[in-house]
């Protein structure tokens, strides 16, 4: 049975054009009942794409809104997920902004990747669809455009085009009347962005679901109900470009009027590139996806969410041709150590998923080169988009995988020195567990069939049952024992049994 805290959820979306809050209750049938909604057009992305930073006045406006949202979430006793998209994602001072949000508003602001944003939008738009139905979701944000073909509720691919309505408006100064010549250049610029970001062999759809405020505004003004054809959109783009800002403000909300021409150009370009006949606007989107993702991460849905994350990690490994048998074996042994030594490592349960992902991906760098493959692994993982993992979680996974061999994870190292004390402790202890698990399959032949670990006063005793010789594995465990003792404060003792033969290290 869910606690009251699990039943009330809050989604905060820090977009490029506006900041939004939705608080909802999870009903007994799994549906969501909205309790409170707010939208504040504070323009977090103002000037970011030109200057590369969130200016102090913009950050102050954002913090004022988020402080108020935090109070509302506290009043409802809601479980909160706050995400920031392209504007904060691309700001050079994003870490300082995230710290201010944590210190001044008491919120953890998660800066999500473009593909994670697309996954959440897809989840929000497609919830409840028949499991075999095909759909295409398009969302035009302020800084980027997300595109996701899907079957049922699940995306089959996730794409993010680095072009949004605010960004294109700032690049071409198109908030006022737009000449024919400038409009032609905007269209060419947008077309090139889509060609560079999307594969040529995307599946064909006749229509797409458009989930953003920009799409909704354009369809409401120029469509037939919730539908807008490409032919009608072509005429609408030319007509809106020829209007002055004052004229547009009579048809659109004032802030929307400034960016609607750029938004319409992006929608037109997307429809041409994807060969769509029409776009159908929907009211659901990122906030709905955040809420559904939160609901699925509640205790009752944790297993399904974990399975989805694991499958996403395995898909990345297969893309680079990893040794799946070895990866699965190391992950199995690492998780057994994590579960059986919970009292020793004293890490949060959420760290388990980080360890599993790092164990599955620790040798991914072999796809680049066997030499220094641990460093190649870090680069591949930290730059990958793994659905279900935030940017910060993916970085921690990459660090744990990177330190599975060679140098131990020490605070003075450049890639670790900016971690918080808690994150550094997590990485160090997960690395210690991963190194023992990896050592126990040093031969890559999976000789260990069972592992039992228990804590004694000053030691951890690990009993393994094997189906073959494990001399190489025991030798490698002995090499990794020093880090285990330094990170966890216990020496490690391994006892192996096979056919009555016992060896220990």
Explain what you see.
By secondary structure, this protein is an alpha/beta fold. The chain has three domains: 4-111, 2-Layer Sandwich (Nucleotidyltransferase, domain 5), CATH 3.30.420; 116-287, Nucleotidyltransferase, domain 5 (2-Layer Sandwich), CATH 3.30.420.150; 297-504, Hypothetical protein af1432. It has helices at 4-7, 48-51, 56-76, 86-90, 94-105, 114-126, 165-172, 180-197, 213-222, 230-241, 245-249, 254-273, 286-296, 302-319, 324-340, 342-345, 351-361, 373-382, 391-402, 421-439, 471-488; strands at 8-14, 19-26, 32-40, 79-84, 109-111, 134-140, 145-151, 154-155, 159-161, 207-210, 227-229, 278-281, 448-455, 459-466, 491-498, 501-504. Strands 6, 7, 8, 9, 10, 11 and 12 form a seven-stranded mixed sheet that branches. A five-stranded mixed sheet has the order 3-2-1-4-5, with helices on both faces. It has a four-stranded mixed sheet with strand order 13-14-15-16. A hairpin with a 4-residue loop joins strand 6 and strand 7 (145-151). The longest helix is centred in the N-terminal third of the chain and has 21 residues, at 56-76.
